[in-house]
Amino acid sequence: MHCRNRAAVHAALPRSFLHSLPRLFPRLFPRLFRFPRSTASIIKGLALMVSIIATSASAQGTAASPADGVYDLLVGTYTGPKSEGIDVYRFDTKSGAATRVSSAKTVNPSYLIASRDGRFVYAVNELPGDNGPATQRGGISAFGFDAKSGQLTFLNQVSSDGNDPCYLSLSPDGRYLTTANYSVAADPGGSFAVFPLEADGKVGAAVLTVHHEGGGPVKGRQDNAHVHSTVFSPDGHYLFAQDLGADKLFSYRYTPDGSRGLLGPTEHRYVDMKAGSGPRHLVFAPDGKYAYLTSELAATVSVFRYGDGNLTLVQTVPMAKPGFKGQVGAAAIHLSPDGRFVYASNRGDANEIVIYAVDPSNGHLREVGRQSSLGKSPREFSIDPTGHWLIVGNQNSDTAYVFRRDLQSGLLDANPARLDIGAPVDFVWVSPS
């Protein structure tokens, strides 16, 4: 399969953070706290400010986390002789040491996501796969998670309402979970589905399924639609569905109040990508001004300017070295926590992480380095919340490597620590504190 950037925990706002509000929001703060005002008005203003901050964090799928310390690292796998499902490691961000603490049995949890408070974890069950019956549907499994002990508890499972689910995302308000159904089979074909989330962490049956149509020129890979990722915009108003088979980035308006239906097509409907390129994963910059896309079949990274539901292509750069003649296969893409660097994994015969510096004036990328993944098929990787470490999973080598990352240059230390994990293909961080 060819499918796959995240958990953070809301913490009580520290006093030092509250004191920093005027500096963080110089224009908004005076309007909320203009004196003289009643105590009730001040409290109401502070509540509004906190709500704005929380909404902004939720739109990015992140929230305040400790600067360093210990995190739980959850690893999704393809199950087989060397893996039973999800592995949980205790990761020390000061030393880079990872210690396995538990595991949970579930079939092919190739993509994971945690609730923003870290109490629940959701996994796709990527079925039926390349050789399975087209009548079989994949699944979405929900788990309770005790971050302090690192233990997962199975809650429930529902049908993904499609074949080969390979991606998950949380709506900005935390009410819904979306999945991309890649679908190897032409029938039912590529789609994405939307699931309600219950207060107890369980996932409900799909309330909406959207099927895509179309294909591309690459035989065997683009014979029909293949939705590969579903990503909410930073402002929380739109959902983008990247379709590898149709060479399109579909855009949908998210209206949870029901005024226009839960999700509906935007005026522009989609962004056309180069025929045969195979768009895969999309990520937004921390400031929300730009978005970055890997195209699997072309092995490229594209840069888009973002504004009010619209993506405008401004640059496309190759991932392969000049003159490279082997097979390629762009996969995951992530930004460093400070937004200064973009990292993308390239599989095929390249098996490496390509590193780009971001020009803050226009979002453009400039290649600054590349690092071998030291294995075969680096499908997914992740940067820890402190930015000091990058872990990459080699699906076909049953290994993961933890690289030390230089915050200034963006480069990776060539002497990483090795973890032996069966078919590792996804990583999620959760703070136990």
What features would you describe in this structure?
This protein is mainly β. It has a domain at 113-379: YVTN repeat-like/Quinoprotein amine dehydrogenase (Methylamine Dehydrogenase, Chain H), CATH 2.130.10.10. The chain has helices spanning 15-19, 21-24, 28-32, 39-60; strands at 70-77, 85-92, 98-105, 112-114, 120-125, 139-146, 151-159, 165-170, 176-181, 191-196, 208-211, 227-232, 238-243, 248-254, 263-272, 279-284, 290-295, 300-307, 310-318, 330-335, 341-346, 352-358, 365-372, 380-383, 389-394, 399-404, 417-420, 424-430. The strands form seven sheets. A four-stranded antiparallel sheet has the order 3-2-1-28, with no helix packed on it. The chain is globular, with a radius of gyration of 21 Å. The two termini are 36 Å apart. Mean pLDDT is 88; it is low at 1-64.
What is the CATH topology descriptor of the domain at 113-379? Methylamine Dehydrogenase, Chain H
Q: Enumerate the spans where pLDDT stays under 50 for 5 or more consecutive residues.
A: 1-64
- Shape-level CATH architecture of the domain at 113-379: 7 Propeller
The strands making up the biggest β-sheet line up spatially as 3-2-1-28
Count the beta strands: 28
Q: Which keywords apply here?
A:
single chain; 433 residues; mainly beta; Methylamine Dehydrogenase, Chain H; four-stranded antiparallel beta sheet; 4 helices; 42% strand
Mind sketching the topology for me?
Blueprint: H1 15-19, H2 21-24, H3 28-32, H4 39-60, E1 70-77, E2 85-92, E3 98-105, E4 112-114, E5 120-125, E6 139-146, E7 151-159, E8 165-170, E9 176-181, E10 191-196, E11 208-211, E12 227-232, E13 238-243, E14 248-254, E15 263-272, E16 279-284, E17 290-295, E18 300-307, E19 310-318, E20 330-335, E21 341-346, E22 352-358, E23 365-372, E24 380-383, E25 389-394, E26 399-404, E27 417-420, E28 424-430
Antiparallel strand pairs: 1-2, 1-28, 2-3, 4-5, 5-6, 6-7, 8-9, 9-10, 10-11, 12-13, 13-14, 14-15, 16-17, 17-18, 18-19, 20-21, 21-22, 22-23, 24-25, 25-26, 26-27
